[in-house]
Amino acid sequence: MDYSRMVRAAAVQISPVLFSRDGTTEKVLQAIASAAKEGAQLVVFPETFVPYYPYFSFVQPPVLMGKEHMRLYEEAVEIPGAVTDAVSRAARSYEIVVVLGVNERDRGSIYNTQLIFDADGSLLLKRRKITPTYHERMVWGQGDGAGLTVQDTAVGKVGALACWEHYNPLARFALMAQHEQIHCAQFPGSMVGQIFADQIEVTIRHHALEAGCFVVNATGWLSPEQVGQITADETLQKVLSGGCHTAIISPEGTHLCPPITEGEGMAIADLDFSLITKRKRMMDCVGHYARPDLLQLRLNPSQWAVMSSLQNESTQQSAATPPLNIPQPEFLTLEP
Fold first, then answer.
1. How far is CA 280 from CA 31, 168, 283, 292, 310, in A?
2. What are the angstrom distances between the C-alpha of 335 and each of 4, 297, 319?
3. Is 326 exposed, middle or buried (0-12, 13-18, 19+ CB in 10 A)?
């Protein structure tokens, strides 16, 4: 791995075009162009930005949110499809790595999905949030271990998690064990207030320190007019504010540029990969600081399927089972 390179990254704090997949996608394309003009080689967007984060589920009880849930189905992103085609073309045109959050529709289900496009436009990763949080469980299905992979991109080894997945330490460790160099984090923003913004900052700075990697974090933002579109209840409107902290963090846990906490904007910073070695020289939690003889992570990287062949399962199991007398020293064990 090259630890002597320099990469310019951009984290975008941006508001969606509510209720419009096409309108929000157009804002994504414009932001990619703007980031490229600033010399960015990597651009990160907020959680489920296309078409929009399901804020309605945070302020409406399930019995009342059927209409908005159906509208989200109608505007959700199919993969592959027009949205991924457009973003792929933009990534290729500007030679920029793009990390985008979408509401993915897979027939009768919606998922919180993170997409990583390489600088040649190829879609390297489509991963689904492994456990939707609280109100989100009424909207999204669950992901699987197939998405807990770090991708080799034009800017280095890139991994991604969404929102409170960062409170699953084993999910984070799975990416660390694959020697993640740039971690792309995504949060919804415009929720809960300042306490959420404070928690985001603590979370992303801690991951940077523990993983010895850069963290590029993007949160969404709602204008006061958009909050009014989501709910007319002034009491509920108060919980759809704050909670924004778009930032870029070094492996030493420091901000590389001023964070964006309100309004639309773009955080841009240069990532000096030598700082990864500088941090890991002191504490490499998947190297000299690890104790695989005491503690190991067992990861199932299989993609879920509601139907599979018993014959295929038997073949896969026999191929994947190691001899009983051979020790397994790795601290990341893959279980098919």
1. 33, 22, 5, 17, 44
2. 34, 10, 11
3. exposed
Burial class (CB in 10 A: 0-12, 13-18, 19+), 33: middle
Three-class SS string for 124-170? EEEEECCCCCHHHHHCCCCCCHHHCCCEEECCEEEEEEEHHHHHCHH
* Cα separations in angstroms, 73 against 101, 102, 226: 16, 12, 20
* Bridge partners (DSSP) listed for residue 110: 105
Burial classification of residue 19, based on how many CB atoms lie within 10 Å of its CB (0-12 exposed, 13-18 middle, 19 or more buried): middle
Three-state SS at 314: helix
Helices (H), 76-119: 82-94
* Burial (Cβ within 10 Å: 0-12, 13-18, ≥19) of residue 61: exposed
Instruction: State how far the Cα of 302 lies from the Cα of 144, in Å rounded to an integer.
Output: 7
Give the homologous superfamily in CATH for domain 6-282: Carbon-nitrogen hydrolase (3.60.110.10)
Could you tell me the CA-to-CA distances from 121 to 100, 184, 260 in Å, in that order? 13, 18, 28
Mean pLDDT by 10 residues, the chain (336 residues): 89 98 98 98 98 97 96 98 98 98 98 98 98 96 97 98 98 98 98 97 98 98 97 95 97 98 98 98 96 95 86 56 45 59
Domain boundaries, the chain: 6-282, 297-334
Q: Which residues are catalytic?
A: 47, 129, 163
CA distance linking residue 186 with residue 98, whole number of Å: 13
pTM, to two decimals = 0.92
Q: In angstroms, rounded to a whole number, what is the distance separating the alpha carbons of residues 24 and 181? A: 29
H/E segment holding residue 74: helix 66-75
Q: Are 179 and 157 in contact (CB under 8 A)?
A: yes
Report the distance separating Cα 293 and Cα 288, nearest Å: 12
* Cα dihedral 123/183/33/190 (nearest 10): 110
